[in-house]
Design brief:
- By secondary structure, the protein is of the alpha+beta class.
- The N and C termini lie far apart (about 70 Å).
């Protein structure tokens, strides 16, 4: 304990020593909070308190300083040596020094005339005002304790024409019990979840072991919500397509919190102003056959995905459960060269983030994306439900998953079959000959 206290003190002193003097909230700190904190720290969002004003931030000053020095806030887990990401929330050393100096010098407000222009938010959303909102009709009752099977809610869109989506956001009404929401776009011809009545939560047979249900019956994913994930905003000319007559299917994983509550989740969508020429698709490299031994502190699981025609990769989203320890994406190129694309050395089940590339990654035909996950099934993992158990694939948090999601770009008129079929094996009409 003495070593830990000394370490924190030394680091605080080091940051303060190299920080600028006469630091005030409005002149130096407020802009940092606007750019890195207010997205979550404002009314109606996931954070427990707001940081929109000096009066709101001042009581939390010491806690803010400690968290930014420890780098527990803002949440960001990518190893900075690999990749550059547009949604990187991490603070620079200068920003950390500025916040530390502000607190150590008395957390002064300064002159309000020095304040930056307030950041504008659309009330209730982190996207622009939605063109369409689709909401659950009745709240789902979440018990205080126990396990809740995945709930699937079929939500008819009522779209009579194809719609291109430029931005989308999911908003649970009680984030404390919503582990994730996956919104699938059910094709009008798909037979998946046809036993479910529209608008009514449905639990399919199989006890959470039917991978076809977990993966959405081979339907595309519109978006994934987890705590801390930013909404989807695709660049102009790129979007997700919802066919006329398609339904959305909410797959919601509820986790009990010790208090009975209810949730009424919804999504908002912004339509593209004109049909995009490119389409975003969400895929995953996955492994379902792993068996994590009891007491194993560093069990490795690998999954791979090959792109026979190459690909433009937009983002990564690693997904594991409570035993998840670390995750890595690596590209293996046709010439044998390898490149680490993303490394998450300390995976956090409670902050599952996606990592959006600052510049899309263009990979040549034959490139393999290799995902490696490490799991800690030992007693040293404080979140481990049972170190004595062998752990296999399953939907519940006491079980495990291994998914390496990524978003890729394909031409708007290309089918998935064409995307994954080598060009020399496609019919001539399919490749424009």
């Amino acid at each position: 304990m003495k070593r830990l206290v000394t370490f924190v003190f030394v680091n605080v002193a080091a940051f303060a020593a190299s920080a600028p003097s006469q630091v005030t909230f409005h002149k130096d700190v407020e802009s940092i909070l606007q750019n890195k904190c207010q997205e979550c720290h404002r009314p109606g969002e996931i954070a427990p308190f707001s940081l929109l004003t000096y009066q709101q931030a001042r009581p939390w000053a010491k806690a803010i300083r400690n968290d930014v020095i420890a780098k527990t806030m803002p949440p960001w887990f990518a190893d900075p040596r690999f990749g550059h990401f547009s949604n990187d929330r991490s603070l620079t050393r200068q920003e950390i020094e500025t916040i530390s100096a502000w607190v150590d010098s008395g957390s002064k407000e300064g002159d309000p005339k020095d304040a930056p222009k307030p950041k504008e938010f659309v009330e209730g959303w982190n996207i622009s005002t939605p063109d369409a909102v689709i909401s659950m009709k009745e709240p789902f009752q979440v018990p205080a304790t126990g396990e809740v099977q995945y709930q699937y809610i079929v939500m008819p869109t009522g779209f009579t024409e194809d719609k291109w989506i430029q931005a989308v956001e999911a908003r649970p009404s009680d984030r404390s019990v919503v582990h994730h929401i996956v919104v699938f776009i059910r094709d009008p011809k798909s037979k998946w979840m046809r036993a479910a009545q529209p608008g009514i939560p449905f639990t399919p047979p199989g006890g959470g072991k039917d991978f076809n249900n977990t993966a959405g019956g081979n339907n595309d994913i519109l978006m994934i919500y987890t705590p801390g994930m930013v909404p989807e905003n695709w660049r102009p000319g790129l979007g997700k397509m919802i066919k006329a007559g398609a339904d959305l299917v909410f797959q919601i994983h509820y986790t009990t919190s010790g208090k009975a509550t209810s949730d009424l989740s919804k999504i908002g969508m912004v339509f593209a102003k004109e049909p995009p020429k490119e389409r975003a698709f969400t895929f995953a490299a996955s492994n379902l056959s792993f068996k994590i031994p009891p007491q194993d502190p560093n069990f490795e699981v690998v999954a791979k995905q090959v792109f026979p025609n190459g690909a433009e990769v937009l983002s990564f989203f690693p997904h594991m459960h409570l035993r998840g320890k670390a995750f890595e994406y690596k590209a293996i190129y046709p010439d044998g060269r390898t490149e680490t694309l993303l490394r998450v050395p300390k995976y956090d089940f409670f902050w599952q983030l996606d990592y959006k590339l600052d510049k899309p990654l263009i990979v040549p035909a034959g490139t393999k994306i290799e995902c490696t996950a490490w799991f800690d099934n030992s007693p040293n993992n404080k979140h481990n439900p049972d170190p004595a158990s062998e752990v296999r694939f399953g939907e519940q948090s006491r079980e495990e998953m291994m998914f390496g999601f990524f978003d890729v770009v394909i031409p708007a008129d290309m089918t998935l079959q064409q995307f994954f079929t080598p060009k020399d094996k496609q019919p001539k009409a399919a490749i424009g000959e």
